[in-house]
Amino acid sequence: MRRSLKAALLWMMPVGLLSACGGAPEEAAAEDVVRESAQSLVAAPPVPPSGNIADSLMRMGDIAVGSALQEGAPTVSSHYYGYRVQVQAGAQLKFEITHLGSSMYLDTGLFLYGPKDANGSYGTAVLAQDDDAGYGQLSKIGLMTFPHGGEYLAVVGFANPAGKQFRLAVDCMGGTCLSNPPSAPANYISALVQSPITANLQSVLDAGNSVREDAIGYLTAFDFAWPYSGETTLDAAAAAILARGQYRGYRSYPTPETLTYAGFESLMFSMFTPLHPAILATYGNGTENVQVKRYYREFSTGPNGDNKRSLFVILFPRSFKVVVYEQTWHEI
Question: 257: part of which helix (H) or strand (E)?
Answer without folding.
Answer: strand 257-260
